Amino acid sequence: MATVELRFSPLPEHVRTARLVAAAVARRAGVDEAVLDEVRLAVGEACTRAVGLHRGSDLSAPVRVALIEEEKQFSIEVGDEAPRAAGASETAGGGAAEPDADGEDDMGLAVISGLVDDVEVTADEHGGLIRMSWPTAPDTEPV
Predict the structure, then answer these.
(1) Which of 17, 35, 97, 111 could disulfide-link 90, Cβ–Cβ 3.0 to 4.6 Å?
(2) Is the CA virtual torsion 61, 130, 69, 26 positive or negative?
(3) Are residues 19 and 63 in contact, defined by beta-carbon separation less than 8 angstroms?
(4) Phi, psi of 37, rounded to the nearest 5 degrees
């Protein structure tokens, strides 16, 4: 299992770099080429959401991104340190999220759930985590 970790200051200009790195690592891990745009967009949404939560809470702590290559899947975890109510649990597929004042939080989760079939969103008083996974192609030569 190979893992690449990124940490970046919560500034919007760093989201593009996270998207590019995620797409490159996903390609190397064997994610289908047809899905790479979805990977890039989902990571962009998750990172933009984390940056917004940090900025809204006036946090300077870095946004964390882990790119995890496993035997049959590729996962991306985007973590923030913005506090939520203790025990809060969010699901991108329609569960209860804690929206910000203008609903952008809900919108970002809705976009992610439309792009990724396997999404888990959790949050507590120490921050939140979005975990997204995609299947990888077997290492076989085409016939």
Answers:
(1) 97
(2) negative
(3) no
(4) -65, -40
Cα(63)–Cα(76) distance, integer angstroms = 13
Looking at residue 24, its amino acid is: A
Instruction: Give the pTM.
Output: 0.83
Q: What is the CB neighbour count within 10 angstroms for residue 138?
A: 8
List the beta strands (DSSP E) in the chain.
2-8, 63-69, 73-80, 89-90, 118-124, 127-135
φ, ψ of residue 81 in degrees (nearest 5): -115, 20
What residue type is assigned to position 46 of the chain? A
* Band of pLDDT at residue 30, cut at 50, 70 and 90: very high
pLDDT tens track for 39-87 = 999 999 999 999 999 999 999 999 999 999 998 999 999 999 999 875 4
- Helix, strand, or coil (residue 138): coil
In single-letter form, the type of residue at position 67 comes to L
